[in-house]
Amino acid sequence: MKYITIILLAWMSINQAGQDIYVSKNARISLYSSAPIEDIKATTSSGGSVYNPSSGELDFSVNIKSFTFEKELMQEHFNSDYMESDKFPKATFKGNIQQTIDLTKDGTYTITVNGALTIHGVTQKRIIPGTLKVKGGIISMASEFIVKCADHDISIPRIVFHNIAESIKMNVSATYTVYKSPTK
Known about the structure:
This protein has helices at residues 2-14, 72-82, and strands at residues 22-33, 40-52, 57-63, 68-69, 90-97, 107-119, 122-135, 138-148, 167-178. The chain has 184 residues and is mainly beta. It has a single domain, classed as Lipocalin, CATH 2.40.128.110. An 8-stranded antiparallel barrel has the order 1-2-3-5-6-7-8-9. A hairpin with a 2-residue loop joins strand 6 (107-119) and strand 7 (122-135). The longest helix has 13 residues, at 2-14. The two termini are 21 Å apart. 19% of the residues are buried.
């Protein structure tokens, strides 16, 4: 949550009057890995995101340890052996939505977000497709994309190669509300 607060303070200092900033404090992120021996699934509902429609800026942050797995041992190995979450506690994405969306009109819009995805301390430029939905003044976004472990220096030991896939499918969804400054 500190990350969202810092982003909001920075944006508020440069934000012009009348421009809204939208925040999601409970973005849902799931990961799925299909491998010959066992599928791996994990989810979290504690991702944070900030969206500035006037600039198109979109930022996400998630605490790696917030992901929960069906098996406790999987979760332990994920955090200690693969993600090294004590050393790299967060995954982040900072980007810009390439399309201009009229948030006053209900609809579902296809979007493309160009930005930088940082996982395991390694930043990669990414173009991520998604949808932005406006319904009754409520904004939600969703995306599905693949993350390759090798792109973020996440090594998979040969001994467990059949248990973990080299590519992980990510699903992200967030519902946004207008940020209300404590001074307003």
